[in-house]
Specification:
The complex is a heterodimer of chains A (130) and B (206). With 130 residues, chain A is mostly beta strands. Chain A has a single domain (2-129), classed as Metal Binding Protein, Guanine Nucleotide Exchange Factor, Chain A. Chain A has one helix at 13-16, and strands spanning 27-29, 35-37, 43-52, 69-78, 87-90, 96-100, 110-113, 120-123, 127-129. In chain A, the strands form 2 sheets. Chain A has a 6-stranded antiparallel β-sheet with strand order 3-4-8-7-6-5, with no helix packed on it. A 3-stranded antiparallel β-sheet of chain A has the order 2-1-9, with no helix packed on it. The longest helix of chain A has 4 residues, at 13-16. The radius of gyration of chain A is 14 Å and the shape is globular. Chain B is an alpha/beta fold. In chain B, strands 2-3-1-4-5-6 form a 6-stranded mixed β-sheet, sandwiched between helices. Classes of the chains: A mainly beta (130), B alpha/beta (206). Chains A and B meet through strand 5 and strand 6 of A and helix 1 and strand 2 of B. Chain B: Its cofactor is Mg(2+). Chain B: This is small monomeric GTPase.
Chain lengths: 130, 206
């Protein structure tokens, strides 16, 4: 990928991203450890994406009509959904499908736009690496 | 990117609402997290990877949750399905009776060579059982379909069910390959790494 970053501020990035810009480690669900991606299967990519919060209702303090969430920029990108070991896809929200853990259904952990059939993003901050 | 799997199988879960179809998709049934956001928008499908006989198999699984009336499930829904899990709840007589309706629905709308399997779910709740295992078995024999009692909650037979259905679909695909092979070479067709697996499946589907 052309947007491999080697920022000085992201000290542990080289632990996660190989020289070829791929994921060095397995990508796992933060909650149940379900395997989402095998090592070397995804490319590091930077893109600003808004992902709704992964917290439960009780801990959310939403004002009506707004969705609580984060804008995240560091992602694992794959071009074919069957590259995933285990993953779930939500129903469409506009042109977007969100990615979730296939086993415990926590999410969204990632993002897919129906207008780009070859791009599936998983946010680094929303998964574990091992 | 090179394909990292040998087979891609498209499966559907069918049955009355409340029989626990969705739970069959969890590895940890009690552990579903369901954030507010996810439970509001709902889940379309899941991709799971299993290994069977040394082959890496991708399962793409749809759950009919929320649209469980036969009339609403027609040809479009079944398109591309290679295997169907028919699920009833052993503590719910009506859900068992409806399996025959679901089978009729599949016969009307799904591809004629789709692999089917009947699951009697919730077999951990024996004290509330309304449908004996024998009746489940008999129904399956009547239609020539495989049968298992499962418990998503206690993880009984859930993996076995998916492995069995996957194996049956693979056997059918391999039979088809053999039938369409130009010469009469008997043995199973070896799928080599160089062959495009994706197009292989498309051929098998159409």
């Amino acid at each position: 990928m052309d947007n491999i970053q080697q920022n000085k501020d992201s000290t542990n990035r080289s632990d996660l991203v190989s020289e070829e810009g791929k994921n060095r480690k397995s990508v796992l669900c933060q909650r149940c450890g379900s395997k989402v991606l095998c090592p070397g299967m995804a490319a590091f990519a930077e893109k600003e994406l808004f992902l709704p919060s992964m917290r439960k209702k009780s801990s959310l303090s939403t004002t009506e009509g707004t969705v609580d969430g984060d804008t995240l920029t560091s992602h694992w990108l794959v071009d074919d959904m069957y590259t995933f070991e285990n993953v779930g896809f939500t129903n469409d929200v506009g042109r977007i499908k969100y990615l979730i853990c296939a086993d415990c259904e926590i999410g969204p952990i990632g993002w897919h736009c129906l207008d780009d059939k070859k791009s599936f993003y998983v946010a680094l901050e929303r998964v574990n690496h091992a | 990117m090179a394909k990292t799997y040998d087979y891609l199988l498209k499966l559907l879960l069918i049955g009355d609402s409340g029989v626990g179809k969705t739970c069959l998709l969890f590895r940890f049934s009690e552990d579903a997290f369901n954030t507010t956001f996810i439970s509001t928008i709902g889940i379309d499908f899941k991709i799971r990877t299993i290994e069977l006989d040394g082959k890496k198999i991708k399962l793409q699984i749809w759950d009919t949750a929320g649209q469980e009336r036969f009339r609403t499930i027609t040809t479009a829904y079944y398109r591309g399905a290679m295997g169907i899990m028919l699920v009833y709840d052993i503590t719910n007589e009506k859900s068992f009776d409806n399996i025959r309706n679901w089978i009729r629905n599949i016969e009307e709308h799904a591809s004629s060579d789709v692999e089917r399997m009947v699951l009697g779910n919730k077999c951990d709740i024996n004290d509330k059982r309304q449908v004996s295992k024998e009746r489940g078995e008999k129904l399956a024999i009547d239609y020539g379909i495989k049968f298992l009692e499962t418990s998503a909650k206690s993880s009984i037979n859930v993996e076995e069910a998916f492995y069995t259905l996957a194996r049956d679909i693979m056997s059918r695909l391999n039979r088809k390959m053999n039938d369409s092979a130009p010469s009469g070479g008997g043995g199973p067709v070896k799928i080599t790494e160089s062959r495009s697996k994706k197009s292989f499946f498309r051929c098998a589907l159409l």
